[in-house]
Amino acid sequence: MKIVVALRVNEAAARLSLDGPETLLDALRDQMGLEGTKKGCDQGACGACTVLLDGKRVLSCLTLAAQCDGHEVTTVEGLAPDGGVHPVQAAFIRHDAFQCGYCTPGQIMSAVALLDEGRAGSDEEIREFMSGNLCRCAAYPNIVAAIRDVAGEVASHGADSGV
Amino acid sequence: MAPTPGFEYVRPSSVEDAVATVSGDPTAAYLAGGTTQLDLVLKDRVISPQRLVDITRLPLRGVTRTSDGLQVAAMTTMEELAADPTVTRELPLVREALLSGASTQLRNMATIGGNLLQRTRCRYFRDPTVAACNKRDPGSGCAAVTGHARMHAILGASEHCIASHASDLCVALVALDAVAHLQSMGGLSHVPLTEFYRVPGDRPDRETVLEHGELVTAIGIPLLPPGTRSSYLKVRDRASYEFALTSAAAALVVEHDVIRFARLALGGVGTVPWRAYEAEGILVGAPVSEGAFRAAAEAAVNDPFTVSGTEFKVELAKRTVVRVLQTVARNAS
């Protein structure tokens, strides 16, 4: 028997028809065509599949889509209006905070949440609370620099910069 | 690639409904945050419940201050408990243990009840192509004792099983005499966490005293005496996002350089979260000194079972104990 689930994805209503075992990651990519969220390890170890669930960062590979019934999901596609870039995305470009780019959507989603959590107070704190996102290209110094940069913008312009 | 494991996803209407559903079906299991359960079911495919009963929507969330402690509802997440004002102010060992575990993403998903009930597991248990695993298949042997052991237990271990209990939180909780609140078909009961886990012996498949269908609904955490200082120290191969090689939770009351109260538990080295009662007995009444800390450490890591690859943990665990006691005593005096 199919389970019908109603959720919001990137501020739009969505309905999914599920067997039960489908992960949120597979539902996003295969059923909804949102391929910005990446499948890295698919086992909760790498962070490439990070999305926001009700504003909190989670791993979509270890979340059942059925568990998202009635909840709000934000993926990298939903961070900025069409054609625009979110301040964290702009900072990643400015700081060359990626090489192959595969982990980048997860890094960016995690960074957006980290700033919201108020955990970008120092490079040490950024490194600790970004540790769930692995980068095999080892772009870590530039990722930290990009986040530090946005944290500085938030500090100097207040909390209304959309971060 | 094998087909995706099939299971029925069920949403119970109440705690009683959830308990009845799982109690009445030997193939059913609870699903909380999913961070180890779904990993083992969907990814490793080493356990195969036919029904997963989603308890995350039940009214089992939040932290309540009671007259003598905290009552933490089982579906409270690790991040939520770490942010609790009482935990932040009065139980630094709990907060530090929580924040040293997993990553923020996982801590936003993983629940306190689920953390208690994460499987005691090692890489051989998680690999279904390995035949010898007494935990998966009682009587089949243990591949780890002659394999590549490093992340394994040395206390409460034997040739039957050396998988370690991976929780950081539970190390702090056993030190605090936390109590699990259980709901079964027969009603409510309470079990101290120090009696909740079973040292594996020759049945490593049985990890806790829970009966099938029994549900952890809350954890009671007693507060520490006024003036207690505490900390959690985790030693690991990476600076963050890694399981413990060794860890220790300690709480001390120190008056005029004499220890008046002591709690100590070890992680990363036990088949269960390891409370060090004998070490506590050595510490109480002793002067704050490296000699007393070292004597406590020797007692805490008494009679280890090591295999090739885990011998180093004996001395590392002792030094971890000494270090955490030094840190706490420095803050306490």
UniProtKB/TrEMBL annotation, chain B:
UniProt entry keywords in alphabetical sequence: Oxidoreductase
Domain FAD-binding PCMH-type: start-end pairs: 2-226
Pfam families: CO_deh_flav_C (PF03450), FAD_binding_5 (PF00941)
InterPro entries assigned: CO_DH_flav_C (IPR005107), CO_DH_flav_C_dom_sf (IPR036683), Diverse_Substr_Oxidored (IPR051312), FAD-bd_PCMH (IPR016166), FAD-bd_PCMH-like_sf (IPR036318), FAD-bd_PCMH_sub1 (IPR016167), FAD-bd_PCMH_sub2 (IPR016169), Mopterin_DH_FAD-bd (IPR002346)
SMART domains to which the protein is assigned, alphabetical: CO_deh_flav_C
Gene Ontology MF: a single term: oxidoreductase activity
Lineage top rank: taxon: Bacteria
Presence of keyword Oxidoreductase: yes
Protein's recorded name: Xanthine dehydrogenase family protein subunit M
Organism: Streptomyces antnestii
Species lineage: Bacteria, Bacillati, Actinomycetota, Actinomycetes, Kitasatosporales
